[in-house]
Design brief:
Chain lengths: 343, 579
């Protein structure tokens, strides 16, 4: 097992390098990072030329990649524009933990990402828990009471929920529960933001502001996953060993939780294992509409502005997490299903 | 059991995340929030009304919503409109432009003229008298040395500022004659000095940033750029939570005295619909960049009004006059006239835009000093258009509904930014109106992030792949009337791929624009612009479809808000709320 983990980790390194090369190439094809610098006016030629040099964009793309990876403090660069490379650069490169500075905000990429990560994790982890809890509850209930009225109702809501576009759901929730409830004198939710600025970031405020975005992010996934759980449970419940367990006289709860669910949940682990690293990428639409300051919006804004260091930073971090969680998921299987062994 | 461990792990992670966010990183030592330890599971809803803190008198606050977060709070490191407005709250320069486009003095004690000796006879030397009572928020006096320092920072190559124009081009020398007198000697008469030097832009505090510069060799990474603890405007930054909000507090050391408001909140809300919801729910007092389509919604609200602020921008048509890339028809001024006469601009304004806009007579319609009110726009006259086209030799010989001449069909490329619904709606209406006179408009739009690409980056407009281009534009340095767009040496080519003249070289315009750039007398300069406007109209080089003012929403609880097109928040020190 240890050898398996070591082998997978070593395989991950060249994989990450290849991924970073592909991402760097693709991002550089996206557009001109200086196009967004003009604001309401267009950039002067002289300033464009100076900024190109100061941001290192005048070098060939391969050199830019190498500098991104290993930094330029070991080489001589022309920092003051006189045409002579006579000073050492200031960048240390990703391999030493320096993801560079954002072109737009001119401060370290890791600082920018670090500010947003807690907000995103708060929204996404809570929603992941809500998704798991509710889809298990709804899925198991539907499977056990197959063809009952409630099953049909839940199925119908699943289909409706799954087909809803996120931005529509977000706006409807906002308009009904925040704007209109206030008008009608009912207890109402806030429209935008993480907390009321006049009150401050208390836990109560944040949770209160979290509810509508949480529902938006969760509903669609709950709708999808509950169908999946239902299907898996139905398949498992009709197996012989379940019938044996019931015949043996085991309590109903034990039959469902210990035997049926454990087997039905294995594919769910795969899905959750794929979801967890992507939690960090946030939910762009929900965050934009509810003005929740998260990673999804950061990625979107960086993509619009072609802010290469930020984009590379986010994508590389997510790639690392994806690979890491794939390894973790594979290991988790061995705990859940004794038939699975690696060597 | 392993599953219990898993659930416990999740719960711990969530509690950790909630606590982490509750005491999230704040750049300034804001009041640390009280940390409760309730488990963040499905909590019951809080009390419906979120009244401010239980102090006897609640602080007077105004809330503004922005679509984008400022990328920096140092005015020389950003070009963003939103950043500029946030900066206006805490940083001021010599003067600002009020809602009548007149200078409102801040750090300058008087406006330099030849009469008071502020401007020399030859137009090359400016002497500014500064207000002796002006102070920074930490009590240090504002002096002429701050201005000199700011100039040195802008023009130093070690600082990656967005632009050093016009300081690097026009200033020969800048000296502090004494603590409260600043002298600028220009290399040549820079007639835009009222707007270009330190009016819309602001000064940096020397006593804070000079030590940083001396220690690091640059002010690029100064903490002040993101956390300006010292400022000379009516408010001071109290807190900036990335991507979420900015909080400003009243500055008691402002030279006009403490502003009436206690706090201003700026909330970053990227989505226009979400902003509308916030406006309706009263979660924001000032809404920004509304669209004409929002007028019925705002009219239905009792406590919100829509305010239209002329910004110097016009929704414009630029014609491609470069014979290397344009359609042969567009080279003929009669054809261009016909195209404009075929479009009923007033109808578009009334029906698509609820009558909120006007047909601009000249490029300088929002700038009374330089606008020529006697010039009439071309009339809507489809029959006249048809006659002009017939005369020009464009007739439909093959009965396909589109005119032609010498085997060439009159199909024009009509381009604008993709994804802007009102613009695309306008295009469709225009296309139909043009079809009625036998001109086919081929709508080809480009995405927002490629349409402005320079000639060097194969930008579609810069390389002339259009006949009529439409977007909103105005004088480069509003409220100064100058613009480099029509200078012949700005025409891009392989040798100078960053040129800004994407329309063509018209020698008479080029000559007049060069002349106005060195005419210091305002009346004479205005006369030149009248001449320019006349040529633009008669030769159909630029046509204004409609004005493009900024549409704001104001909650009626805010008083005395007078928004200016150049400096929207110029009178923030006067804003008040009725509680």
């Amino acid at each position: 097992m240890t050898r398996y983990v070591i082998r997978r980790t070593l395989q991950a390194i060249p994989l990450l390098l290849i991924i970073s090369v592909i991402l760097f190439a693709l991002i550089n094809l996206m557009g001109d990072p200086l196009a967004s610098f003009g604001g309401r006016q267009r950039l002067r030629a002289k300033d464009r030329e100076r900024l190109t040099r100061q941001l290192g964009l005048d070098k060939p793309i391969l050199v830019q990649y190498v500098i991104w990876l290993v930094g330029n403090d070991w080489m001589e660069v022309d920092l003051d524009g006189d045409g002579l490379p006579d000073q050492h650069g200031t960048r240390q490169g990703v391999l030493r933990g320096d993801f560079g500075k954002s072109f737009v905000e001119k401060r370290p990429v890791l600082d920018i990402i670090g500010e947003r990560v807690p907000n995103t994790l708060l929204l996404m982890l809570t929603s992941e828990v809500a998704i798991l809890v509710f889809s298990l509850l709804i899925g198991i209930y539907s499977a056990l009471r197959q063809y009952s009225v409630l099953d049909y109702v839940l199925t119908a809501f699943s289909f409706i929920g799954y087909s809803m576009p996120v931005f529509w759901l977000a706006l409807i929730l906002m308009y009904v529960f925040a704007v209109n409830f206030k008008r009608w004198g009912l207890p109402y939710f806030p429209t935008v933001g993480m907390y009321d600025l006049a009150v401050g970031p208390t836990v109560g405020q944040i949770l209160w502001h979290l509810i509508l975005p949480l529902v938006t992010v969760s509903v669609i996934s709950i709708a999808g996953y509950s169908r999946y759980v239902r299907a898996q449970m139905l398949e498992v419940i009709n197996q012989d060993y379940i019938r044996t367990a019931r015949a043996k006289g085991l309590p109903r709860r034990m039959v469902i939780m210990d035997h049926a669910l454990k087997n039905a949940a294995l594919p769910l682990v795969t899905i959750v294992g794929m979801d967890v690293p992507l939690l960090l990428s946030g939910a762009v639409v929900t965050e934009s509409i509810f003005a929740w300051p998260g990673m999804g919006r950061l990625f979107w804004d960086a993509a619009i502005d072609t802010d290469i260091p930020v984009l590379m930073g986010i994508l590389v971090i997510i790639s690392i997490l994806v690979i890491l969680f794939q390894i973790i998921t594979d290991i988790t299987y061995t705990f859940l299903d004794p038939r699975i062994r690696y060597d | 059991m392993k599953r219990t461990w898993l659930y416990t792990g999740w719960t711990v992670a969530i509690i950790a995340a909630a606590l982490l966010t509750a005491c999230g990183p704040s750049p300034t030592p804001a009041a640390p929030p009280p940390e409760a330890t309730e488990a963040p599971t499905v909590a019951p809803p809080e009390a419906p009304t979120e009244a401010p803190t239980a102090a006897p008198t609640a602080p007077k606050t105004a809330t503004i919503t922005f679509f984008e977060e400022p990328d920096s709070l140092n005015p020389y490191y950003t070009d963003m409109w939103f950043a500029g407005n946030a900066i206006d709250l805490f940083l001021v320069g010599l003067w600002r432009f009020d809602d009548q486009v007149q200078p409102d003095l801040e750090m300058a004690a008087e406006f330099p003229t030849v009469g008071n000796g502020g401007l020399s006879e030859d137009g090359l030397t400016l002497t500014y008298k500064l207000r002796p009572e002006a102070k920074w928020s930490d009590g240090e006096p504002v002096t002429a040395h701050d201005f000199v320092f700011t100039y040195e920072m802008i023009t130093d190559e070690a600082n990656a500022v967005i632009t050093s124009y016009p300081y690097d081009t026009y200033i020969e020398s800048i000296t502090a004659l004494d603590d409260h007198t600043l002298q600028i000697v220009m290399t040549e008469p820079f007639v835009a000095w009222p707007t270009g030097f330190y009016s819309l832009l602001q000064i940096l505090p020397k006593h804070i940033l000079e030590p940083v510069y001396e220690a690091e060799g640059t002010i690029d990474n100064a903490e002040w750029n993101r956390n300006p603890t010292v400022s000379n405007g009516p408010f001071i930054l109290k807190e900036w939570k990335a991507a979420s909000h900015l909080i400003f507090e009243a500055n008691p050391n402002y030279w006009r005295g403490r502003p009436k408001l206690d706090q201003i909140f700026i909330r970053i809300v990227p989505d226009t619909e979400a902003q509308m919801a916030a406006i309706k729910a009263g979660d924001t007092d000032v809404g920004v960049f509304l669209s004409a389509a929002d007028k019925p919604d705002i009219d239905a609200l009792e406590d919100v009004e829509m305010v239209s602020v002329p910004s110097g921008y016009m929704e414009s048509w630029f014609f491609n006059l470069d014979p290397n890339t344009n359609h042969p028809a567009i080279r003929d001024v009669q054809v261009r006239k016909a195209i404009v006469m075929a479009v009923d601009r007033q109808k578009i304004i009334d029906e698509l835009f609820y009558g909120l806009y006007e047909i601009p007579k000249t490029y300088w319609y929002d700038n009374a000093t330089y606008d020529d009110p006697t010039l009439e726009p071309m009339p809507y006259d489809p029959e006249g258009a048809k006659a002009l086209l017939d005369e020009a030799g464009w007739v439909d010989t093959n009965s396909d509904g589109v005119r032609d001449k010498d085997g060439e069909e009159l199909v024009l490329r009509y381009s604008t930014t993709a994804g802007n619904e009102l613009r695309e709606a306008t295009q469709v209406v225009v296309q139909q109106m043009l079809a009625e006179v036998g001109v086919k408009a081929d709508i080809t739009n480009y995405s927002y992030d490629t349409i402005w690409n320079s000639y060097g980056d194969a930008g579609p407009i810069a390389t002339g792949q259009y006949d009529i281009a439409q977007w909103s534009d105005g004088a480069y340095d509003y409220p100064d009337p100058n613009t480099p767009y029509f200078l012949c040496d700005q025409f891009p080519s392989d040798e100078s791929p960053d040129g800004l003249n994407w329309y063509g070289c018209i020698p008479e315009l080029d000559e007049l624009f060069q002349k106005q750039a060195v005419t210091a007398d305002v009346k004479e300069r205005a006369a030149i612009f009248h001449e320019i406007a006349r040529i633009m109209r008669d030769e159909v080089i630029w046509i204004g479809l409609r004005t493009d003012p900024d549409l704001w929403s104001l909650n009626t609880r805010l008083k005395d808000v007078r928004l200016s097109g150049a400096d929207p928040f110029w009178n923030a020190f006067e804003w008040d709320v009725s509680q």
